[in-house]
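Human: For the file, kindly provide a plain-text protein record giving the amino acid sequence and the backbone structure tokens, at your earliest convenience.
Assistant:
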Amino acid sequence: MVRPVRAELISVETRDGLSLPALLFAPRRARGAAAIWLHGNGGASAFYSVRRSNALAEALGRRGIAFCALNNRGAETEKRLKRRRRGRSERVLLGYAHERIRDCLFDIDGALAALRARGYRTFYLVGHSTGANKIAVWDFHRRRNPVRAYVLVAPGDDVGIYYQALGPRRFVRALATARARVRAGRG
């Protein structure tokens, strides 16, 4: 059987200088449309769900839609990534333990730009767990955008998870500490 897509490892450059890896499954009969997969947190990565990625890529590919599995800055618990700043390269520690959800703006914008540069013009965002939450954050900040539709797959309850893990008193204390640090510019 001939597969309806071919896979390619691409680099997504973000406006804040990161270089993020992504797998682009391009359909053999392209229609200029692409779906961007945003994984969740908790050690997740676009590269660890091979069966799901392959199945989604093939299903979309049969419809002429490319599938881009983006490994965003929240991939894995901790990960060193390359960042370009002022013409110099540096390694920064990221991963979901260090990620700010608002930074998803850079990641999604970078993925859209990378796909636009490859000729895609119609876009869909598909997010699983915290990836779904990132779509909601991105949509809030990018009201006028080129995305035709969003697919939110099992949106994550990140706050509820921490509330359950910490208990009511420790959760309220942790939230107060986090708010104080944000106000002090150390969020």
